[in-house]
Design goal:
RsbT antagonist protein RsbS, Bact_StressResp_Reg
Length: about 130
């Protein structure tokens, strides 16, 4: 990641993190993104995460599984995750191939993703089972 263009960025916006993927990532880069983001949730005490994938025109099974895993890891660390910017062709291919985002919420764009996080932040916590 040193010396070359940034492949992804993680920015803080109040109690939330906004993670943008700027270009297609290979599997090792996706794992690095996952590690960096999960660490930032703790260090920034984030209550929510928006992952922007608008720059991606392909989302393979490893990438979609990694995004689901990030959502679960974030949940276990006390943050809600919203994935935004899934392109129409990517959504079509994901449905055709039987891939999904699991329990991770999706939204059209960053604005709607932040609104989703605000909704979750305003809701009372779900009872523990």
């Amino acid at each position: 990641m040193n010396g070359g263009p940034r492949l992804f960025s993680i920015l803080r916006q109040g109690p939330y993190l906004i993670a943008s993927i700027h270009t297609a990532l290979d599997d090792s880069q996706l794992v690095r993104f996952q590690q960096d983001l999960v660490e930032r949730i703790g260090s920034d005490r984030a209550r929510g995460v928006v992952i922007d994938v608008a720059a991606l025109d392909v989302l393979d099974s490893f990438a979609s599984r990694t995004l689901r895993d990030i959502g679960e890891m974030a949940r276990l660390r006390g943050a809600v995750t919203v994935i935004v910017g899934i392109q129409p062709d990517v959504a079509f291919a994901m449905v055709e191939l039987g891939m999904d985002t699991g329990r991770v919420v999706t939204a059209l764009d960053l604005e709607e993703g932040l609104a989703e996080l605000d909704t979750y932040a305003a809701a009372p916590p779900a009872p523990r089972r």
